[in-house]
Structure formats: C-alpha cells, structure tokens
C-alpha cells in the first residue's frame, strides 16, 4: 500500500516539474523565508498531492516548493505536519519518504523550540546533536516496514557528523552563535508545566519542541543523511515561568531565521 501511494505522489510531482532534487529542506514554525530565495520555483500545494496530509496549523503554509538554490536542485517543505494535529506518525513523515523517492541525497530540518538549558538564550540557534523521543510512538511501527529499510534502524548517531562539523565551521566564520545540544520531542500541543520542564532538564534535554524526531527517525531508516537546527524562541525557566505568547514566539523565530538561512545556504553551497 505504501509503495503504491509513494509512487502516485512521486509521479504527480515529477509531472509538475520536480526533477531529481538533491536536497530536501523542512521549514519549521515561523521559518519560511528561505523559500523566497529559491530560483525558478515550482509549487505543489499539499491538498493537490496524492496521499499527502493537509497542514492544519495556521502559521504553516502547506506546500512543496522545488527550484534552484545556490546552484543545487532543492525541494522545500513549506509547512510540516505534527502528531498533535491528529495524524499518525506515518502521516507526519510521509513527505520525507516522498522527497527521498524524488531523489534527495541530504535532508535539512529546522524547528522552533524552547530552551531548557538556561545557558542558551532565545534568539539563538542550537545544532541538534542527539534527541530524546517522548512522542510515545515510532514512525517505523507499521507492518511491512522492512520493505522500505531496516526495521531495527540504528540510531547511535542520527545526525550526520560531517554536516554538523561543517555547520559549526560556518557559524564560527559568520560569527553566529550556534549552541549544541539534545532536542526532546513531546506530543503537545499544550506547553509544558514547571514540573515537566524540570523533568526534561533532568533527563538531559537542552531544548524542547513538538516535531523533528519522527522525520529524523525516517531519514535514518532511509539511510538519508540529516542535519537539524532549532531556533530557540523562548527560555523555559521553571522558577520564573510566565504564560507563553505564541505571537512573540513566531516573531522571535522570524527575526532569528536569517542566521539559520545563512548556515543552510553556506552548507548547501559547499555540498
């Protein structure tokens, strides 16, 4: 069934002109400006792509964009899917499988997240070095998964070491603060309590969000090298916690995004 669905999605996109992209990019909440820099863009709205879920979050656009960026053919997810929207984890990660079918060789992921590590400040970037999955499930937990890759996918180093090293070098050269840490993915959509922030710190998290981990698991299942950056939009200090202002989080994500774009642009240029 999955093979048939992927084939139809792929054929539709090839028919639209999505010709052998080399790099896939997933843009997180408030992080859409990179798409504006794509040359000769071709758009495919999610509601037109066979078997694609629909983005239900108001600040997620809901389209795939194909074109040229720094001399490379790329395909960008402008708007992603979340477990909290009511999708299962296979739906959430379906676009990663479609981009892989189209031919991508590298995957870049971004997200907006909260800083658990209080040495990190909102408006900074964090390179994800490892993660903790607290979403209560796996996108690989379905029948016939072994047809698409190893059922028991190794996760000893889920984020590509060479691309991480290159991003650190670029950040130093561009004078961009790039923290490094562990991302924990929770279900949401409610924000965390003070006690939950304390727990997340105890178990080793540096930042918390509601995405990314399912996509990274599937990328590893497909043996697709992946790298991910969190834009830190708020500071999760349980001793000084105030109600979260979602519009402020979006604003911080948007104002920090140019630094993330610089890192991705320079990495793409050197691949």
Briefly say what this structure is.
The chain is α/β, with parallel strands linked by helices and about 270 residues long. It has one domain (about 1-270): Nucleoside phosphorylase domain (Rossmann fold, 3-Layer(aba) Sandwich). It has helices at about 1-15, 90-100, 160-175, 195-200, 215-220, 245-270; strands spanning about 25, 40-45, 65-70, 70-80, 105-115, 125-135, 180-185, 205-210, 225-235.
Spans of at least 5 consecutive residues whose pLDDT stays below 50 are none
Work out the helicity level.
Answer: 25-40%
How many domains? The number is 1
Oligomer: single chain
Distance between the termini: 35 Å
**What is the CATH C-level name?**
Alpha Beta
CATH architecture: 3-Layer(aba) Sandwich
Biggest sheet, spatial arrangement of strands: 5-8-7-6-9
Number of helices: 6
Largest sheet: 5 strands, mixed, barrel
Strand content: 25-35%
Query: What structural category arises from helix and sheet content?
Result: alpha/beta
Pfam families: PNP_UDP_1
Organism: Arenibacter nanhaiticus
Function: The purine nucleoside phosphorylases catalyze the phosphorolytic breakdown of the N-glycosidic bond in the beta-(deoxy)ribonucleoside molecules, with the formation of the corresponding free purine bases and pentose-1-phosphate.
Domain Nucleoside phosphorylase: 22-269
Explain what the structure shows.
The structure is a single chain. The chain is α/β, with parallel strands linked by helices. The chain has one domain (2-270): Nucleoside phosphorylase domain (Rossmann fold), CATH 3.40.50.1580. Helices cover 32% and strands 25% of the residues. It is built from six helices and nine strands. The protein has helices at residues 2-16, 89-102, 161-174, 194-202, 213-221, 246-270, and strands spanning 23-27, 39-45, 63-69, 72-78, 106-115, 125-134, 178-186, 207-209, 226-235. The protein has a five-stranded mixed β-barrel. Helix 1 (2-16) crosses helix 2 and helix 2 crosses helix 5. The radius of gyration is 18 Å and the shape is globular. The model has no long low-confidence stretch (mean pLDDT 93). InterPro entries: Nucleoside_phosphorylase_d, Nucleoside_phosphorylase_sf, Pur_Nuc_Pase_Ino/Guo-sp, Purine_phosphorylase. Pfam families: PNP_UDP_1. This is Purine nucleoside phosphorylase. Belongs to the PNP/MTAP phosphorylase family. Residues 22-269 form the Nucleoside phosphorylase domain.
